[in-house]
Amino acid sequence: VRTRLILSMHDFDGRPKDLMRRLADAWAEPAASVVKFAFRARSIRDNLEIFEILRDAPKPTIGLGMGEFGLMSRVLAPKFSGSLTFASLRDEAATAPGQPTIADLLGMYRFRSIGKDTKLYGVIGWPVAHSMSPLIHNAGFEAVGHNGVYLPMPVPDSDEAFKATISSLVEEPELQFTGASVTIPHKERLVGSGENRLPTDPDAEALAIGAANTIWIDQSVSGAQAWPIRVTNTDSHAIMSLVQDSINNVNGAKVALIGAGGAARAAAFILARAKGTIRVLNRSNERAEQLASEINSWIEKLSPDRHMLQSGDIAVESLTDILTTPCDVYINCTPVGMTGGPDPEGLSIPVHELAGKLPPETVFFDTVYNPIETPMIKAAKEHGFRTIDGVEMFVRQAAAQFELWTGKLAPVQLFDRLVREKLGSSS
Prior knowledge:
Blueprint: E1 5-11, H1 19-28, E2 32-40, H2 45-56, E3 61-66, H3 71-75, H4 102-108, E4 119-125, H5 133-144, E5 148-154, H6 159-170, E6 177-182, E7 200-202, H7 204-209, E8 214-217, E9 229-232, H8 234-247, E10 254-258, H9 262-273, E11 277-281, H10 285-302, E12 314-317, E13 329-332, H11 351-354, E14 363-366, H12 375-382, E15 386-388, H13 390-406, H14 412-426
Helix pairs in contact: 5-14, 8-9, 8-13, 9-10, 13-14
């Protein structure tokens, strides 16, 4: 067996200014059979340069981005003819920052199935390292035989960074970037305005809600520059389907929304449009009033058959009024009760005080999914009410994304089982 030389260079601080000169020298070295370069990636876009270098390399080359921004270069190495990649036996055994474990590389990311035709998906947010979306979507791709891989894509909280990253991903045709989940803090940027606004095509629901969580790229249009960036909000579809499953008919149902953020806006729009009567209860009356006014206006515009909205379809009340008007459904849209949140032991809805005033078919719905059983869900179960936990919502919104991207039914039971097992083991 002939021994061959790998000529290797690393920069743990960032991309060397003279990277291309160093590579040219290394490629020209007759003794080197393989050239390896690795540097700390500073953004998702650094991966694209690595792929370009690998694609045009005159001899076998390994190119890796170190750190959390560089994971894409490690997982997609086969797609761009990288000679090999590196992984660790365990997280604590990594020999360079950002290395995935062998179990994640081969299992979750299905490294051996990645090729030139593999489509790229991901979750865009800041931070995203602990997102469970890669776990379920990659398992879903395998289950339905879809040639795709889904990665965490960290993008800092900046209009400029967000626009530059999405534009770069879309404009690189060989990457085959086909869709993404978008999470905090970027949801509003998908439908926002201003000089850094992306040339997106939001649907009416995303515009009405003022935020979106899903991108998919229509690659049927010829020319990378022409690919439209479609945008929607699958949170609203998840909320609607879960509430309908619990009470059958939203028309005329009374729904209390606790909070006035993105999840509350999605719930208010979709449930009011289905002719539910919505009460918004929030610490800030001003924010709740703004939500009600904007959503009412959009529903009038999108539902002409409804004519003028009747007073009270979306009513704003103080949190102290929650005990005065019984509702059919109570939805927590705040982070109260969330692990690592501002009030993990808090009770988002005073279930114990409501218990004597409500029938057992009343539904208590929490949008928080970690822990699975929040203090509110636990209290509702103790009093015999119907409950919808945050895992159910997370899975439904992910399933809607999956179906948009693949055109195939999502394996919902698989998604649900994986999330519950992961959360159960972490707790």
